[in-house]
Amino acid sequence: MDIGYTSAQKQFRAEVQEWLGAHAPKTRLPSFDTAEGFELHREWERTLAKDKWGNVNWPVEYGGRGLDLISWLIFEEEYYRADAPLRVSQNGIFLLAPTIMEYGTEAQKARFLPPMASGDEIWAQAWSEPGAGSDMAAIRTKAVRDGDHYIVTGQKTWSSRAVFADWCFALVRTEEGSERHRGLSKLLIPLDSEGLTRRPIAQLDGDPGFAELFFDEVRVPAENLLGPEHGGWGVAMATAGFERGLLLRSPARFQAAAARLVKLYKQHKDRLSSGVGEQVILAWMNTERFCAATYKLVSRVKAGASISSESSANKLFWSEMDRHLHRTAMTIMGAQAELEEGLDTIQNGRWLDGYMFSLAGPIYAGTNEIQRNILAERVLGLPRK
Description:
By secondary structure, the protein is α+β, with helices and mostly antiparallel strands. It folds into 3 domains: about 5-90, no CATH class; about 125-230, Beta Barrel (Butyryl-CoA Dehydrogenase, subunit A, domain 2); about 250-380, Butyryl-CoA Dehydrogenase, subunit A, domain 3, CATH 1.20.140. It has helices at about 5-25, 35-50, 70-80, 90-105, 105-120, 230-245, 250-270, 275-300, 310-335, 350-360, 370-380, and strands spanning about 125, 140-145, 150-160, 165-175, 185-190, 195-200, 210-220, 225. The chain has a 4-stranded mixed beta sheet with strand order 1-4-5-8. Helix 3 (about 70-80) runs parallel beside helix 7 and helix 4 (about 90-105) crosses helix 6 (about 230-245). The radius of gyration is 21 Å and the shape is globular.
């Protein structure tokens, strides 16, 4: 596959490079899973938004530049090449925003998209529950209509960014007596609502990257219903498609890591077996394959196609690719890979952090077992067990 760029796209890339060179932080920010790091990343979102760099493919009226997805891929390539901060607002801008643009009312678009773009409102994802993780059809948190409000009661867990975020988008059961994927609705809920309790959940590194959310008769305005009442399954599947298939993990994220892996290998290759070099080559090739596949998918989307089962295939590929890439880095570093701090630490423990996070890849955004079932049933036509 030959990926060529127009003169306008090349000019856009140069503009991105120039802006990031002048504005991207020269040192890495603290983790956004800490209170200090979260606010510093929020400020970075505001810096991006001032010059409309935060969401280049959004409509201009909502804080974007009105560009296509090819431009977004170019931006991502330069963004990760500049080693710019991770996006603390990713749940909102990459997952919820496309869903609002597809299912939201004009009032909802005007209310929620601009502050999301500016970093003034950061969003958490509130889907999983005890007993309803990848099987979202088992959700039990209920929302009962009471005039112009819903009364929400129940519990969510593994809610990404929910410790410090401002809002969450939640899938709840609004139709009494409904089962499985029927009778669900998607609500937009302020995290400072009366009756809502947040309990931090520590990650492997000890930082609170997730939270449990407890809803004790939380009143949510009915105008915060996204999409049709009792029709939230279709809305959620649209969000899941963005999460698994295209927007959440651009190829550039992995290509940047592969470039760092090659550099790491060259620094230590004299003491490594040839088999390690083969794994480095495979890791680099996988990121290039993913990049080519994504450009092909984006080209199809531009031509009017929709993302369907490709989202499951993509999620499987990038999660396994990321885990292999970081496992290879750990092999290269040997015992030093276990160090997060100290004079002997390699890249300030960045590879260790990346490795621990990669272990979660086959779990979040729908477990890989579930994705294989989806592909088996919907692509291969195999019977359900």
